[in-house]
Every structure is written in structure tokens, then in C-alpha cells.
Amino acid sequence: MSLFTLLENWLENPQKNLTGNSLGNPLRTSYRVALSRAIKWALCSLLVFLPLPGLALDLPAPVKYALAQAGIPRSAVGIYVHETGAGQPLLAINAGVGMSPASVMKLLTTFAGLELLGPGYAWKTELYADGIVRGDALHGNLVIKGYGDPRLNLENFWLLTRRLRQTGLREITGDLVLDSSHFDLPGSDSAAFDGRPYRAYNVLPEALMVNYRTLALRLLPQPESRSVRIVVDPLLPSLDLKNSLTLTNRACDDWKDDLGTDIQSGTGLDGRVSVTFKGSYALGCGEKTLFLSVHDTARYTFDLFRQLWEQQGGVLRGSVRRSAAPGGTVPLETHQSPPLTDIVRDINKFSNNTAARQLYLTLGLGSEPLREPQVMPASFSIGYGNDRAAKSGTILSLDGTGENPDPSRATLAKSETAIRQWLASRQLVFPELILENGSGLSRNERISAGHMGKLLLAAFQSHVMPEFVSSLPIVAVDGTMKKRLSRSAVAGQAHIKTGLLEGVKTIAGYVRDKSGRRSIVVFFINHPRAESGQAAMDALLDWVYEGR
């Protein structure tokens, strides 16, 4: 029997409790009722200041010790642990403070994507003939129009060119025309975030994005010759690679910085890109892959298309330029991306920033049918390396600065509005939330650990829960968690998304404890020594797994 029930029985029947006689004066009875209400109100007020059942008010000892060893104060962390189905969190430390989530912000973008677009949503890429097809020749230009496909990678771009070749087309007498007008974006600098414009994670979103505009450079140690072999894929004809790496026996630490990479980019279609490695590479690193983005969009797409087209017996006579697809015509071929479920797995398991930003921009248009954009005058084109110019009339901007904003084009503002409306529809009110690009590659984005936990609780009750949870890295198994906690009991028992920026380290996801219960775990560190906080995060995952 509860304390409230015992108190109520005693106050309402004191004589019965003492003598067994339930009779009493009516005046005394009303006095006892009033006294009962007053005491119950006082007890309720007192309980506000008492710990909730099951809520830990202090850090678990192993977590506290690990943070102290790392030199990270309690004030620099946000922690939230909540068992699914429970009414109150198990642990909440600074859970209401808005903090940088780094790549954990991708959980918001991908959950919103799965619910707003649906797990089977697919992007399209269209190929148009801007000219006349006679026999196996297109007398005119081939136009590629993109709608933001995050997975138009090397394999899928090869498939696109193969399907085009299977239509019977062999020769293209004109140019390759690229249409990225579906995204309406302001001008941006890929070096703005951290001064490393050639790193693949800094590739900016585009409606027509081929293979993330990257080169994969495999570094293969050759112990016999004390050298390092480099294999580039795709190996584009405009690339000059100079390899002067020396193989060393040093520890494999900051191997990317040790390479001594020097990149020189030419301009125009005749300009070449030079990548020189003049540093060292440690034998202990084994085989590694370095991803670089050293070409602009037009040059990269042109080189790769022509290479794949010629491999299949095709001929491309012209050059490359940017312009709009012709209106009112039927595509020669339409390529469909893999379903959103596959894209979300790439984003969360491997923390793909560019794919996350492509998805984020798509959210602003929802799953509505794509409308035809405003079309540029036929006399208008964008030559390679030249500024925009129109011979007559007002044009549709391809970079977000035009005078005719088109409601069918994706913008960052539309995406933010869509996400906030979606959150509101789920009664999720996050006043501290700051959105910039949805990937977490930002110094401005903010969310609290508690609200990230609430988001994960909502996802666990969602109809897209299986697709969402399975997209997260499995501890000690795959993705960004593959090499963590391999000797811990929690290995294979948790799906955890990771995040890392300078001064920021984060995790969030789901842990299945040894009793079979599932809990949401969120741990944010915003501190100059954040990178040293991994032991504390691992300790929290172990603590949750062991049943607290």
C-alpha cells in the first residue's frame, strides 16, 4: 500500500484506526478532510525536489574517472540514457544544454528522411537529347539533369552510360551539358570549414553529383623496394600523379598528414590537375585509401563520362558546359538511385557528409512529384570556366543567385522549415535546435543531448524503426564503430552513431543490455580535449550494457 493511501485512510478514519469506532463529529470530519488535502499537497511539493525513481543524479564511477583522466570537466558533457518504454531517464547530465553534435546530427536528417520521403524513395537522373538523333548519332548535345542523387557513384554512373549505349546511340557530335539547377544554393567555399578544400568530406552538395567528385588513392606498401605503390580510381586523363613517398618503420599515427601532399589545379578544359606526394608512409599502416576531390564538377564529370563512353565504343566530339535541360522533351534514359534505405545506411554507418547534405536538401521538396523548372532561353549557355551570361531575358540561376526563384528547386531554407514542421507534428519541441546543413559538419549546428535522446525514443516507436536502427554502426562490427570495444561484452549489442570535430566528440544510439532491455544512449563532449573522451564514452556503453 502506498504512503498516500495509508495517510488518507488514517486522516479520514482516525477513531477507527485507534478504537475501531468509525463514528465522529461532522465538524471534525470536514477538518480532517481539509487537513488531509493540505498534507498531500505538501508531500507532492516535497517530491518535486526528490530524485525520480531510477534517475541517477551523478555520473557512473567509471565514466567520472575516465573524464577526470582525460581532463574533461562535467560541465563540458551532455549525457542522456533512457530505457525504451520507461517513463523517466536513467541518467541525465546537462541534458538540456544545446551542444554541437558533430555527425550525430545525421540521425535527425536520416530519421526525418525515412518518415517524410519513405524508405523506398529514389532519386532520378535524366539524359536528354538536345538535337536530332539519326541512326546511331546524336547531332547535338547530350544533357544530364540531376535531382540530387547521393549515390550516383562510379558503378551507377557506369550503369547510366551503359544503358544509354544500349539505346543504340554511339556518337554525340555536340557537347556534354550538365544541369544542376534543381538545387538553388548560395555560393560556398569548400575550404571554409577547415581550410582543407581537397578532402572528400568537404565536397559541397550539387544536384548533379557524380561519384562525390572524388578520387580513391589506394596506398600499397612495397617492403622489398621500400616504396609505396599508389592506385587511383578513377584514373582520369587530366590527372598528373607524382609519387615520391618513402616507406618508413615509424608508427602509423597521422598518416594523411605525413604524406606531404601538394595539389595544383589548372583552370579550363585544357588545365591539368597535379597531385604530388613527397612525404613518407609507415609500413605499419598497411593498405589505406585516401579520398581526394581535386577536380571541379565540369572537368570531373566530362573526363569520367568520356572515359566510360569510349570504353563502350562510343564517341563524344564536343566539350562540356553547364546549361538547362530542354523543356517539353522526353528523356532518352532515366536512371533511378538505390532506395533511401540504402542511402541512409551509407550516411550513418560511414558518416557520409555529402550524402547527408544531398538528403537534407531533398527534404524541403518532400515526396511530391517534381515539377518542370523554368527553362533558360535557347540562346543561353554556360561555357566551361566562364561566368554566367545571358544574351536576352531573365535567366534561371544555377547557383542560387538568379532573379526567378523557382518553387520546384531545393533550398536550405525549405529543408529547415520541413524538418521543424515535421518535429512539431510529432510534438517534439527543440527550442535550442540550430540547423545549417543537416550533416553535422558545422560549427553552428546545435541540439541538446536530452532532445537527441527524445528523437531516438520517437524513432524507436516509428514505423521506420527497423530501417533506421539498422543503419547505425554496430559496435565492434562495422562502420565507424568497427574498431571499438571489440573485447567488451557490449560488442555486437549496440547500434551507435559517432561524431568527431575539432573540440567535439559524440555518440548516440541504442544499447541492448545483458538482460535484453534496450536503452537510448547519448553522450556529447564539447571541449578542447574532447578527442580524449573516448574511454569515458566506452565506459558509459559498458555501464548501460551491464544493467547499470
UniProtKB/TrEMBL annotation:
One of its GO terms (biological process) is proteolysis. Belongs to the peptidase S13 family. Gene3D superfamilies: D-Ala-D-Ala carboxypeptidase C, peptidase S13, DD-peptidase/beta-lactamase superfamily. The keyword Protease applies. It comes from the Bacteria. The keyword Endoplasmic reticulum does not apply. This is D-alanyl-D-alanine carboxypeptidase / D-alanyl-D-alanine-endopeptidase (Penicillin-binding protein 4). Keywords: Carboxypeptidase, Hydrolase, Protease. One of its GO terms (molecular function) is serine-type carboxypeptidase activity.
